[in-house]
Design brief:
Layout lengths: L7 H15 L9 E6 L1 H7 L7 E4 L11 E5 L12 H4 E6 L5 E7 L10 H14 L5 E5 L2 H9 L4 H11 L3 H4 L5 E3 L7 H11 L4 E4 L3 E6 L2 H21 L10 H10 L13
Parallel strand pairs: 7-8
Antiparallel strand pairs: 1-3, 1-6, 2-5, 3-4, 4-5, 6-9, 8-9
Helix pairs in contact: 4-8, 5-9, 6-9
Length: 272
């Protein structure tokens, strides 16, 4: 059995959480990540028959039964993950009944997965139906995107359009746009259901006045997706109080989308 501290999936989690904290996206214990793992890879590092304990999932996760995840812990600070992953992370398997998660490694202080675990798993279920290659769900509180929530209309088409105007790459990186939910109580199944519903259309979902959810095939892709949205929001916040002399035109966005062969939300553009 290989040393789990050398596992690529653990290395990715350690580096990514450190980067997210460094960027100010995950203050204190804000934010969480869940990463769907390949069973064969997990078995290289862990005895999958050795269940440490069982943790209720809080909802019926039967569509994910038998699947393995590494998940950040509740109340844990991202700044501590790199140095002490065994306390701040956990590797688990969704049990066959769908109502229990079987802990195989981590949460060594008796902790458990993030309070947003149902929202993560519901989002995985939704994204896997749209894209069987989806592996990552990431939640964080990017500063400029959050600030934008307070000064921009929370309409999906208008919010997306504004972000697309901020950077040439935006319509290429998130051509499906940005979903927006009204403020909802976090840590509940209700917000998990609402997020998963949005994830049927979008890989980025804004939780109004709270943060963002992103989904992707890899850790890099998901991080980069949120990073690009946050950069666009930063440019908006830097310029929104100034006269607009130039902008990326909608017809130019179409040229970009067609050049890079991405399926974009045409209904989010103002075309004649």
């Amino acid at each position: 059995m290989k040393d789990i501290m050398t596992a690529p999936f653990l290395t990715e989690m350690r580096k990514t959480t450190a980067n997210m904290y460094r960027l100010g996206w995950d203050e204190r214990n804000g934010g969480n990540i869940s990463y769907l793992l390949d069973e064969a890879e997990v078995k290289e590092y862990l005895d999958t028959k050795a269940v440490i304990r069982r943790i209720p999932t809080g909802f019926d996760a039967a569509p994910l039964a038998g699947k393995y995840f590494i998940v950040t812990g509740t109340g844990k600070y991202f700044k501590n993950v790199y140095d002490d992953p065994e306390t701040n992370l956990g590797v688990l398997r969704i049990a066959e009944d769908g109502t229990t998660a079987e802990l195989l490694w981590g949460y060594k202080d008796g902790g458990r997965f993030t309070s947003e675990f149902p929202a993560h798993m519901m989002s995985h279920i939704a994204r896997l139906k749209k894209d069987p290659a989806n592996r990552v769900v990431m939640h964080c509180h990017p500063t400029n995107l959050l600030a934008m929530n307070y000064v921009h209309e929370l309409d999906e088409a208008k919010f997306t359009h504004t972000l697309w105007e901020m950077c040439t790459e935006c319509i290429v990186v998130f051509p499906d746009g940005v979903g927006v939910l009204p403020w909802m109580l976090c840590g509940t199944n209700e917000i998990g259901v609402a997020t998963a519903k949005k994830m049927e259309e979008f890989r980025v979902v804004v939780w109004a006045l709270h943060g963002v959810y992103g989904a992707g095939k890899t850790m890099d892709e998901t991080f980069g997706l949120i990073e690009t949205v946050e950069k666009a929001a930063q440019i908006f916040m830097l310029t929104s109080h100034l006269p607009r002399l130039n902008t990326i035109k909608d017809e130019d966005m179409v040229k970009l989308a067609e050049l890079f062969k991405v399926d974009y939300r045409k209904d989010f553009l103002n075309l004649k």
